[in-house]
User: Which sequence fits this backbone?
């Protein structure tokens, strides 16, 4: 069934244009609720680390089991290897199951909503940005708000689109589901505060699973210089997020910075109105190229 997963990727991206499913049936929301049950940060560091690791492993096992069961049910019920209608039906169902594990339209819409809010006022832009980032936005300038929105768009291009497609191409629905669980756990637990020890396993797991997709995402953004990309990508504390952000900064020719933490492409011009729209266009091109590449990868593995 070499065509099953490539067709499912196409279905998922087409359905993504319709938006997100309701929260009550969204698997990533369910992952977040599971992770929210655990309050391990008040425990001693070794106990918190072990508890966080066990909670992560249990959650990953549950996600793997459910996604494998659903994918298996589709294959058994529709027998895609036996007929064209079965193949198309299985691709449709797998695509519908894959869709909630990626989110391109929502990401692009949220980034552009920051620009729309800035058109109203700086405070509105700051408040809208606070929905996307964990940093304090209350004192950011208009330029810094746009920078943060572009950085978030680039970073989440990997987390929300390219990486789930990469792991889906490799391991099918369980691959994409486990990646999204790992990324969600890192987003909720992976901070250097009272959650550090309980979230350390989650942070490292996300680093490992995002390592190759983040670099692939950077290349899909087509930066003008690989040498500059290698230099700039290392400036962020994260081993992965710097790659797509640096690629975006270089492609736009703009300086992107998180005050007191990093500056990417310091020789670039300051971000201007209109750069968010340009960044969205570049990210959209990367989504199309990435989807085609992952579809070809999935087909080649199974041909």
Assistant:
């Amino acid at each position: 069934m070499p065509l099953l997963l490539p067709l499912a990727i196409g279905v998922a991206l087409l359905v993504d244009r319709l938006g997100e499913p309701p929260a009550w049936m969204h698997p990533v929301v369910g992952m977040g609720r599971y992770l929210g049950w655990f309050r391990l940060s008040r425990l001693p560091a070794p106990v918190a680390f072990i508890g966080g690791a066990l909670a992560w492993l249990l959650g990953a096992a549950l996600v793997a089991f459910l996604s494998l069961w659903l994918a298996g049910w589709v294959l058994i019920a529709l027998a895609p290897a036996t007929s064209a209608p079965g193949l198309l039906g299985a691709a449709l169902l797998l695509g519908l199951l894959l869709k909630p594990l990626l989110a391109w339209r929502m990401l692009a819409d949220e980034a552009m909503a920051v620009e729309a809010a800035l058109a109203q006022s700086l405070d509105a832009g700051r408040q809208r940005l606070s929905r996307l980032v964990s940093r304090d936005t209350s004192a950011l300038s208009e330029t810094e708000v746009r920078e943060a929105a572009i950085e978030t768009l680039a970073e989440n291009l990997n987390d929300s689109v390219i990486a789930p497609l990469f792991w889906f191409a490799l391991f099918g629905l369980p691959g994409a589901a486990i990646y999204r669980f790992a990324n969600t756990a890192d987003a909720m637990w992976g901070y250097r505060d009272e959650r550090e020890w309980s979230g350390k396993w989650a942070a490292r797991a996300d680093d490992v699973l995002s390592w190759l997709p983040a670099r692939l995402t950077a290349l899909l953004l087509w930066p003008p210089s690989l040498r500059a990309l290698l230099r700039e990508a290392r400036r962020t504390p994260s081993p992965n997020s710097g790659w797509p952000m640096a690629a975006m900064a270089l492609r736009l020719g703009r300086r992107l910075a998180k005050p007191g933490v990093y500056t990417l492409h310091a020789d670039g011009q300051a971000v201007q109105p209109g750069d968010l729209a340009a960044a969205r266009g570049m990210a959209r091109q990367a989504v199309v190229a990435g989807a085609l590449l992952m579809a070809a990868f999935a087909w080649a593995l199974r041909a």
Q: What stands out?
A: Residues 219 and 226 are 9 Å apart (CA to CA). The first helix runs from residue 4 to 16.
